[in-house]
Each structure stands twice: as C-alpha cells, then as structure tokens.
Amino acid sequence: MIVTGPFSSGNQTPRLPRLPTPPSGWPIGSYATYEEAQRAVDYLADKEFQVQDVTIVGVDLMLVERVLGRLSWAKVLGTGAASGAWFGVFIGVLLSLFNPAQGFSYVPLLVGLVAGVVFGAASAAMGYAFTRGRRDFSSASQLVAGRYDVLCQPRTAEKGRDLLARLAMGSHG
Predict the structure, then answer these.
(1) Residues β-bridged to residue 63
(2) For residues 173 and 166, what is the distance between their CA atoms, to the nearest angstrom?
C-alpha cells in the first residue's frame, strides 16, 4: 500500500509528468480544507471509482509562517548544543563500533558528545549572531491553499461529480 500526502511525489504511476505541469481535468468538487478534499477522494475510492483519474489541486496558495516563540541566546545555544550532542553521539557510536580495540569503548562516544555540543553551540551562535537581532523569533512555515479543487479526467468526470453530490447530500449509498 502506498500512502501519499499533499506534497509527496507519489512515484507509483508512470503517468506523472517529470516537469512541473499544470493539472488537467474537469472540476467535480471544491473544498475549504485539504482534509475535506481528501475525504471526497477517499469516498470515491470506497465507491470503486477510478481515482487514478482524480487530482487534488490547491488554489490560491499562501505561505503561512506561524511564530513559535521568542529567541534568546540561551535558547539558541541550548538548541544548538542539543542538536550537536545528538550528532556527536551518533559519530561516537560509529567510531566505537569500528574501533580496532577489542570490545566497545566509551572514549569515542564521549569525545563525539563533547565535540558535538561545542560545535553545535558554536554554529548556532554564529547563525544567530549574523541576524543581528533582525529575527529574534522561531517559526514554522507551511504552504496552505485558500481552497482545494478535485479535478477529474473528462471520461469519468460526470460519474465522479454524481458520487460527490451524493456525498454532499449525505446519502452515502
């Protein structure tokens, strides 16, 4: 079973274009959220409709940046040190596993941990210092659409539109 999301490449079918290509098909439904559009396509699949003829298209795209919190030197250094520590531990484990000495040694692990903390904190500090206070917050960005249209190839569009009309009216039979 192949599971795909709104931004996955979905290499499961050979008909997908290799270059960015505008979608084709006739609109058979329009929804305010991706979840609603996904539910509509799932309904079509449950009714054994040819869903390979269907495309969900996000219209009126927006980049939404949600502010997560204020940054401070303590947060920047702590986050940098923590991410560096994880990388250092990973490198230390690899070095310990391939150590020519017999048995597992903790020395490479500790060296990797300390070096990771130092380099992680230093690189985070440099990045934060270069902003010179112009970006004292952390955020997460997300691409969101104003609406989601469900398009269908003309050969099956009428049947798809009829099924989605039944879904909208609440008669799922």
Answers:
(1) 143
(2) 8
The answer to whether 145 and 58 are in contact (CB under 8 A) is yes
The domain limits of the chain are 26-64+144-169, 72-135
Residue in 78, 83, 84, 66 with CA at minimum distance from that of residue 137: 66
pTM for the predicted model, two decimal places:
0.61
Q: Which of 142, 140, 171, 159 is nearest to 67 (CA)?
A: 140
Q: What is the share, in percent, of the chain residues with pLDDT greater than 70?
A: 87
Average pLDDT over residues 140-166: 95
Instruction: Select the CATH number that applies to the domain covering 26-64+144-169 from these four: 1.10.260, 1.10.10, 3.30.70, 2.40.50.
Output: 3.30.70
pLDDT for the residue numbered 1: 42
The 3 state secondary structure assigned to 12-63 is CCCCCCCCCCCCCCEEEEEECCHHHHHHHHHHHHHCCCCHHHEEEEEEEEEE
Question: Residue 5 CA to chain centroid, in angstroms?
Answer: 8
- How many Å apart are CA 165 and CA 96, to the nearest integer? 62
Residues contacting 32, CB < 8 A, separation 6+: 147, 148
Separation of alpha carbons 160 and 29, rounded Å: 9
